[in-house]
Structure formats: C-alpha cells, structure tokens
Amino acid sequence: MSQSTLPVRSTDPETSYAAAVKAALGASRVRPIVLDIVREKGPLTHDELIAAYHDRVVTSLGQVPRSSDSGIRTRLKELAHQGLVTVADIDGFSNYGNAAKRWVVVDPDDPSFVYDPDAIAAYIDDEDIVGFGHFLDGDASDAAGTDED
Fold first, then answer.
1. What is the 3-state secondary structure (H, E, C) of the chain?
2. Which of 22, 83, 104, 130 could form a disulfide with 42 if both were Cys (CB 3.0 to 4.6 A apart)?
3. CATH of the domain at 138
4. Residue 11: its pLDDT value, please?
5. Residue 27 belongs to what domain range?
6. Is the pLDDT of residue 118 over 60?
C-alpha cells in the first residue's frame, strides 16, 4: 500500500501513517465479515448489524477483529458503493425507536438487481432530456446566462 493512498497528510507524524496502515488492514478484515452478517441475518438496520458484529467478536474466540460502531457503518457503506449491499424496501427501527434503513445483500441472480438501461429510460420522458452539446463544442458562454435571457 503506498502512502499516497492512505488518508494522511504529508505533514502528519509517522504515528499517523502507522495508524492509517493499521486501519486499512483492519478494514479489509472487517468488510467481509460485515457482508457475511448481512447475508446471514439481513435485512438489518445499522444498530442490528453492529450488535450482530459485536456478538460475533465475542463468540469467535479472537478470530473476528474488533471494530468500532462507526467502522462497521463505514464498511457497510463501502459494500454499498461496491454494489454488494443495498437498502431494503421496508424500513426498520433504530435502538431509539426512529425509522432506520435496513440493508440486504444484493443477489446477482435476482433480475430486479440487474442494471437495465431500458428500464431506466422508461422513466424519462423526451421533455426531461436537456441538451448539453454546446458544452462539448467548447461554447459554454450561454451556460452561465446573459443579460438577454
């Protein structure tokens, strides 16, 4: 892992680099466990996922790395960006009784999760399409508007 990919500044002390390396390595161990928990127990809210993760840490006899609540939420968000998990149709409730998103693993064999450009195009009417050819031609002068508008 190069230092340019670590979330540290060039002016940070060496301890920051060491912490960033440790966090990056830990994240790569936590992420598949988060995915496994959502696959086994989903749909789950953040609170339910965090509780399930901490239960797994306790019952694993040292095989599952500890992680902070925010670290678990961050790993879930990374999985969502990778297209491996998504928000479920029905909300759950947080530990405080508030509405909360529930997360599920994306099933690659489920056609409802497959990218279909025709399905997306069905939601767009012709009048919703805005031209931007003048930007491609390098003439962006009318993009900012003029006094004549």
1. CCHHHCCCCCCCCHHHHHHHHHHHHHHHHHHHHHHHHHHHHCCECHHHHHHHHHHHHHHCCCCCCCCCHHHHHHHHHHHHHCCCEEECCCCEECCCCCEECCEEECCCCCHHHCCCHHHHHCCCCHHHCCCCHHHHCCCCHHHCCCCCC
2. 104
3. 1.10.10.10
4. 82
5. 3-143
6. no
